[in-house]
Amino acid sequence: MLCCMPGVAFVPALLVSWSSAAFIISYVIAVLAGHVEPLVPYISDTGTKPPESGVFGFMINISALLAAITMYIRYLLIEKQNESSHFVRSSCNMFTLCLGLMGCTGMGIVATFQELAVPSVHDIGALVAFGSGVVYITLQSIISYKSCPRWNTYLVCHIRMAISVISCIAFIPMIVFASKISMTKIDWTPGEKDYTYHIMSAICEWTVAFGFIFFFLTFIRDFQRFSLRISTEIHEE
């Protein structure tokens, strides 16, 4: 079905479906193995112990690559549209791309350095991934408004901005509650110390993560009318 999509719409569609599967599969394996409680674990908690750690690391790294490809195509799309409309500065478009690629790098760090093995590096990667991601989708929402009504409908812009606002609102308490947790562990049980902070932070984390997924889902329609052509030249001597 992905191959039948016009243009390059299959790229964000693949990113959304693959990332959703990465979260869900690692969660199911971790819960069935008894490594985490079913009630709202951290996303990273579901990819800390084997066998789910291998699945999580592999799938999240692929998600980071797909996200980087999607962001680069989005950059090219805006550059092409900007040739005739001039609705955004090229430097702003490039800055937004760089922020997005920083977020992808953070995702790779999260996938590679497990939470319990190297917690400081893992936490830095998560902060970079979520922080850069939130700023990226916010800037993309603003750019979308600037491209209206020629390249986007106001409905799509409103949806993107709503997702951005919700993600921004969830990101702040995610960091605040996580900073109040005094221990690094994955086997949380109700009633123990810092459990409430853990639950609130984890809820916000899942909110931000799926905010990114729903945001990239809105790219599919834009990517349908954009195709990449690779030309080769053969020179005879």
From TrEMBL:
<feature type="transmembrane region" description="Helical">
    <location>
        <begin position="197"/>
        <end position="220"/>
    </location>
</feature>
<feature type="transmembrane region" description="Helical">
    <location>
        <begin position="94"/>
        <end position="112"/>
    </location>
</feature>
<protein>
    <submittedName>
        <fullName>DRAM1 protein</fullName>
    </submittedName>
</protein>
<keyword id="KW-1133">Transmembrane helix</keyword>
<dbReference type="Pfam" id="PF10277">
    <property type="entry name" value="Frag1"/>
</dbReference>
<feature type="transmembrane region" description="Helical">
    <location>
        <begin position="53"/>
        <end position="73"/>
    </location>
</feature>
<dbReference type="GO" id="GO:0005764">
    <property type="term" value="C:lysosome"/>
</dbReference>
<dbReference type="GO" id="GO:0012505">
    <property type="term" value="C:endomembrane system"/>
</dbReference>
<keyword id="KW-0812">Transmembrane</keyword>
<dbReference type="InterPro" id="IPR050911">
    <property type="entry name" value="DRAM/TMEM150_Autophagy_Mod"/>
</dbReference>
<feature type="transmembrane region" description="Helical">
    <location>
        <begin position="155"/>
        <end position="177"/>
    </location>
</feature>
<keyword id="KW-0472">Membrane</keyword>
<feature type="domain" description="CWH43-like N-terminal">
    <location>
        <begin position="8"/>
        <end position="225"/>
    </location>
</feature>
<dbReference type="InterPro" id="IPR019402">
    <property type="entry name" value="CWH43_N"/>
</dbReference>
<feature type="transmembrane region" description="Helical">
    <location>
        <begin position="7"/>
        <end position="33"/>
    </location>
</feature>
<comment type="similarity">
    <text>Belongs to the DRAM/TMEM150 family.</text>
</comment>
<dbReference type="GO" id="GO:0010506">
    <property type="term" value="P:regulation of autophagy"/>
</dbReference>
<feature type="transmembrane region" description="Helical">
    <location>
        <begin position="124"/>
        <end position="143"/>
    </location>
</feature>
